[in-house]
Amino acid sequence: MSSNVFSGSFGSIFKHRRTNSPKYPEENATLELLKSSILVAFSGALRIHLAFLLLHIQSSILTCVAGGLIIYTVYTLDRALGSEEDTVNRTELNGSNKKIGLAVSILAFIIGTCILAVEEMLLLAFIPFITGYLYSKGIKIGRFALKLKGGLGIKNLVVGLTWGIFIAGLAGSGCGNLVPVVLVFIFFGVKLFINSAIYDFKDIKGDTLAGIRTLPVSLGARKTRNLLLSMHLFSHMVIGIALIHGALAFEPFIVLYSFVCGLICIQKFTNSENAEFSSRKLERTVLVDGESTSILGLRMVAVSLIA
């Protein structure tokens, strides 16, 4: 018997024993909870690096890492706290150990805030954290109650404003001119607004049951698609003009790739299909969450070829 066959047999026995364990579903769901935000955190860290490039400022690896940890904290915390729509939209997280998710989120937040505190940007760490809590759970003091979730497009607006300010703030903290920082905020704020709306199309069922008035739920697919397309064209027109006039670093490859990729995503993933195949999920993940990785990878190749 070959070693490959033995390894495969042993792996099958081990897997069988694990799946028969009463704790296996909980462990599996907890693992899904912990890893569900890794890609969006990594993508966010790379977006901060892209913001440094557009501002023509030397990128700080520690700032990007800290930003990624804060992003991981906010999204993992949101999923650990749980919400009505997630029982439908994220069934793989049902039964997960929320305490472990909360503990890991707090640890990531502490490390991220410590790094930003050393770099004198501590306030920026709390903006997405507080906003994320107000969105997920809200606060109630006597008769006063504030919760950001539920209004028409509020979810997308919160995502765009919060992460646009966060990314532009981290990258532009040492920038003496406010204009390029505002332009970077517009670029990433609009992009993340659009990306969150694209993901809303796959969550229509859960959002409808929870009474959350996302854009696809309230406006329908066609009107939402037209809105996102208009925002996409406007933001890239503004950034294109800024590049031409020297208000931002001359990075045409970043803007051009973002423009083309955004058009593809808006046209391809803004429908309300009930059934979704794994290949489509992978394609959306690569094009939407993996956009910053693709941009930087192709930019490195382009720069090396030009050099």
From TrEMBL:
Full protein name: UbiA prenyltransferase family protein
Keyword terms: Membrane, Transferase, Transmembrane, Transmembrane helix
Molecular functions (GO terms): transferase activity, transferring alkyl or aryl (other than methyl) groups
Keyword Membrane: yes
Subcellular location: Cell membrane
GO CC field: plasma membrane
NCBIfam families: PRK13591.1
Organism the protein comes from: Methanosarcina horonobensis HB-1 = JCM 15518
Membrane protein topology class: Multi-pass membrane protein
Segments passing through the bilayer: 50-75, 100-131, 152-172, 178-199
